[in-house]
Amino acid sequence: MRGRWSLLALVVLVMACAGLAQTSRGHALLRDMGLYEEPASYTELAFTNPDALPYRLKSAKEPVGVSFSVRNVSGSPRSYQWSIAEVHDGKSQVRATGTVAVPAQAGATVTRSVATACATGRLQVVVSLASPAQSIDFWVACPAAGPAPKATHTAKGGA
Questions:
Q1: Is residue 37 part of a domain?
Q2: CA-CA to 158 of 20 to 30 Å: which in 14, 70, 87, 147?
Q3: What is the pTM of this model?
Q4: DSSP assignments along 41-98, one per residue
Q5: CB contact set of 123 (below 8 Å; sequence gap of 6+)
Q6: How far is it, in rounded angstroms, from Cα 152 to Cα 75?
Q7: Owning domain of residue 147
Q8: Which of 100, 46, 109 is nearest to 78 (CA)?
Q9: Interatomic CA distance for residues 107 and 101, integer angstroms
Q10: Would you say 127 and 82 are in contact if contact means Cβ atoms under 8 Å apart?
Q11: How do residues 15-59 score in pLDDT, each as one tens digit?
């Protein structure tokens, strides 16, 4: 009979410890003991459909459609400040800004049409997040720029 009570007490103790481990206080205790590590959290920024990005503008003031996604890979919701800028001849001009709220472990898509001013050469369109500092960009040929360049898309920044 005594062995059964000892086994029952052990089961109750294990269940209480397992329940405690699921709380924030339990996580802190396990982390202090080196037995728990916070899951990785990061932000993904990407063009929604990179193959649909324009290679050449038809006119110097043609609006450019930009669609990008922000994915929040963390345990809590986040708001992201974003901007879309154009860079031409070394001069940058912000064309659109905004904020997008993204739930934990989810994503959101932002689609905007931005004005351009590009008569010659190439125009770089840059999508940036303020925090974490990340950016992606693409280049588009201006109307009088000659043959259309091969599309290039880049990403910068970290989680």
A1: no
A2: 87
A3: 0.70
A4: -EEEEEES-GGGS-SB-SSTT--EEEEEEEEEESSS-EEEEEEEEEEETTEEEEEEEE
A5: 57, 86, 87, 88, 116, 139, 140, 141, 142
A6: 33
A7: 42-157
A8: 100
A9: 9
A10: yes
A11: 666 665 667 676 677 777 776 666 789 999 999 999 999 999 999
